[in-house]
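Justification of computing resources. Each target in the renewal requires a structure prediction run like the one illustrated here; the chain below, 239 residues long, is used simply to show the kind of job we budget for.
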Amino acid sequence: MATITTTAAIDTTEQTEQAEQTAKSGRSEATATKLAALRPLAVDVAVPLGVYFAAHSALGLGLVPSLALSSAVPAVRTVAGLLRERTLNGLALLMLVVNTAGIALSAISGDPRLMLAKDGAISSIIGISIIVSAFGRRPLMTAGLKPFIVKGIAARDAAWERLAAGSAAFRRQERTFSLVWGSVLVAECVARVVGAYTLPVETMAWLGTVFLVAAIGVGILAGNVVAERIAHRVVADAE
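Resulting structure tokens:
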């Protein structure tokens, strides 16, 4: 009787250890999948921004050389995508366009109101690009939204792809999320330009930052409403 009890205890312990190992393996795979999903954001957005701030702030390089250096990775990624996969890397191309616009706008000088207004040009370029992409095959903001909803879970990733391929309502919500952010950024640009030519220069010197922070806040609040609906669909389909 004691032998049977001991054997059962050993079996239970082995089963528990196997279950723990399986759970750890599942968590590791989920983490790896989530990191892989976030890689495009890191490579196409974070790396160029990091290069720019390191060159401009840390190394003391001028605006144009810093922007040129930060454009290297997006340029390579854009060309590589076209040549190797016959696809257009939206995030890399967007960063390349923004940097190019920054270099072009750096030539503008003299009129303080024009200097204030040009700061909104970058927001408008990003916003318009996001709006245009919303009517394409894969909206730009999907690259940032999907990893946070899927969370590295294979069933959710598969559910997202199924819904994106077969549900018009899901694609509409996915499009709406990008339209929200694109519209907010364009509105911020309009407010900045109007303010630059109607308000005192001293006021716009600090109010421009307020406009940007407010735009991001509105984007988060309005975007979360759409994101919650998308998440509900994905989770329900994955179960």
